[in-house]
TrEMBL record:
It comes from Amycolatopsis bullii. The modification 4-aspartylphosphate is found at D56. The keyword Iron does not apply. Keywords: DNA-binding, Phosphoprotein, Transcription, Transcription regulation. Residues 147-217 form the HTH luxR-type domain. The keyword Metal-binding does not apply. This is DNA-binding response regulator. One of its GO terms (molecular function) is DNA binding. InterPro entries: CheY-like_superfamily, NreC/VraR/RcsB-like_REC, Sig_transdc_resp-reg_C-effctor, Sig_transdc_resp-reg_receiver, Tscrpt_reg_LuxR_C, WalR-like.
Amino acid sequence: MSDRPRTLVAEDQYLLRDGLTHLLTAHGFDVVAAVATGPELVAALREHRPEVSIVDVRMPPTNTDEGLQAALAARREVPGLPILVLSQHVEQLYARELLADGTGAIGYLLKDRVFNAEQFIDAVRRVAAGGTVMDPEVIAKLVAGNASDPLAALTPREREVLSLMAEGCSNAAIASRLHFSEGAVGKHTANIFAKLGISASDDTNRRVLAVLAYLGS
């Protein structure tokens, strides 16, 4: 990721699109395109190959799923292309499909649950760096839709740690939320990786694989 990540904004509401553009620019992102429709998004993704894209789900012309369809098509062309979905809705099927390739660099936030600029910008940076950031409500709906439980071997505390990992929290943030040491978080994450059969590799990739297992992708 460059010092000023090349960023694309896809949002049909003018005020929100303009606001996102100014917010991202103020925090060091280079917004290379800001588009309002699905076809414009497809063209901009192909032309600019941004380092991260913020994409609404429902965009003109049909206001159904143009944003997510464009994101899926772009990820098929460029595996691991960083996409942060910013929506009012949880589209479970498409969220699972975005996660399914296992490469990470995916986020899914709900517009009415983004409470401050720091939270949003941190999520964008995490996705741009290859991480996975999910709103807790999205996580709850995806987990509730699982017919099987791949996490049966995890303790309740390990499940808590993994849930926060899915939200995009660092070990330090997890320690703060759960009120124990960062070292204890490290032990829990090591246990999670071992129980899920995730072998030693780049730690970011292991976290992505653990989150994918948690979401049942």
